[in-house]
UniProtKB/TrEMBL annotation:
<feature type="compositionally biased region" description="Basic and acidic residues">
    <location>
        <begin position="116"/>
        <end position="125"/>
    </location>
</feature>
<feature type="transmembrane region" description="Helical">
    <location>
        <begin position="20"/>
        <end position="40"/>
    </location>
</feature>
<keyword id="KW-1133">Transmembrane helix</keyword>
<protein>
    <submittedName>
        <fullName>Uncharacterized protein</fullName>
    </submittedName>
</protein>
<keyword id="KW-0812">Transmembrane</keyword>
<feature type="region of interest" description="Disordered">
    <location>
        <begin position="68"/>
        <end position="125"/>
    </location>
</feature>
<keyword id="KW-0472">Membrane</keyword>
């Protein structure tokens, strides 16, 4: 068998293991991958948070501009509604994240119990 380059080795090739050095290298690579994933997650969250904040600011600026136009055009109802909504937000009222009362979460109702309007629609009133 020496013609094919296969000689009898002084050890059994099926019993060879990477040893302590192989384990250390594998553990180091795994640790680096975990640290990279944590860093990536942190950066993605930061980008998403900045985008959310930017969207909120844009919405607030657009609402303020609309209110200024409504006040300039002499539409006091729009200005009063916005003031009432802003007062509800400042007092910790039921306004949702966008400031609209329609998007407000209903935390007063017990879990599993339908809202009164929904019960009326179903005929459970």
């Amino acid at each position: 068998m020496t013609a094919l380059g296969l000689e009898r080795l002084p050890y059994d090739p099926d019993q060879v293991t990477p040893g302590v050095i192989g384990f250390a290298v594998t553990a180091a690579v795994a640790l680096v991958v975990i640290l990279l994933l944590l860093d990536f997650t942190r950066r993605v969250r930061r980008i998403n948070d900045r985008a959310d904040i930017r969207a909120r600011i844009d919405a607030e600026v657009a609402e303020r501009d609309a209110l200024e136009r409504a006040a300039a055009e002499g539409q006091p109802d729009a200005v009063e509604e916005a003031a009432a909504r802003d007062a509800g937000i400042a007092e910790g009222g039921p306004a949702g994240p966008t400031g609209s009362l329609e998007a407000a979460p209903q935390d007063d109702a017990p879990a599993g119990e339908a809202e009164p309007v929904e019960r009326e629609r179903r005929g459970d009133a």
